[in-house]
Amino acid sequence: MPDRRTAQEALTRLTVDVPDWPEKGVTFKDITPVLADHHAFSAIITALAAAGRDDHGNVVVDKVVGMEARGFILAAPVALALGIGFVPVRKAGKLPRESHAVSYSLEYGEATLEVHRDGIAPGERVLMVDDVLATGGTVDATRRLIEACGGVATGASVLMELSFLEPRTVTRDLPVATLLTI
């Protein structure tokens, strides 16, 4: 079974920086080479899933939430690794049924996220999974959506954290597991 260090090394080696995308001044972290490498992808999924387990390896969450869009790619296999369900958090207008919505600021603009009202049952413990923790706005908005459903956000597990944007001032007391801090 791959360890955390293997995941970190793969992430460092395979992530490609794309300057000035999606707009000037932003450096996009392209993880598609990581996803294309079976061993790297397996290692990062195992490492991300660790945030949903206790020190004895027991699963301590009931659902995994993935934030649109790259969070979906990571969260669904994390949910499978933990043997629990996956719930997508989508951009506004993408869900077909009754949903909760939260608007927030991100690194280069504004966004609104939604979750189906019945996606998370009251009292369910939820692990959030995403690719990058930048400003913390997406994680904070998703936490508010989980709470609107009556669920409990137990933490977040992300590939990389952009510490220079100080996201922990927004995520506050929420436990966040990060594979790579930049």
TrEMBL record:
Keywords (A to Z) from UniProt: Cytoplasm, Glycosyltransferase, Membrane, Purine salvage, Transferase, Transmembrane, Transmembrane helix
Pfam families: Pribosyltran
Catalytic activity: AMP + diphosphate = 5-phospho-alpha-D-ribose 1-diphosphate + adenine
Gene3D superfamilies referenced in this protein's UniProt entry, alphabetically: 3.40.50.2020
Chain ranges of the Phosphoribosyltransferase domain: 35-151
Pathway membership: Purine metabolism; AMP biosynthesis via salvage pathway; AMP from adenine: step 1/1
Main localization of the protein described in the UniProt heading: cytoplasm
Its EC number(s): 2.4.2.7
Superkingdom assignment: Bacteria
Localization per record: Cytoplasm
InterPro entries: Ade_phspho_trans, PRTase-like, PRTase_dom, UPRTase/APRTase
Any GO molecular function: adenine binding
Gene Ontology biological-process entries: adenine salvage; AMP salvage; purine ribonucleoside salvage
GO cellular component: cytoplasm
Membrane-spanning residues: 71-89
Matches recorded under HAMAP family: Aden_phosphoribosyltr
NCBIfam families: apt, PRK02304.1-3, PRK02304.1-5
Subunit structure: Homodimer.
Family classification: Belongs to the purine/pyrimidine phosphoribosyltransferase family.
PANTHER family: ADENINE PHOSPHORIBOSYLTRANSFERASE (PTHR32315)
Role summary: Catalyzes a salvage reaction resulting in the formation of AMP, that is energically less costly than de novo synthesis.
Official protein name in the record: Adenine phosphoribosyltransferase
Native source organism of the sequence: Nocardioides eburneiflavus
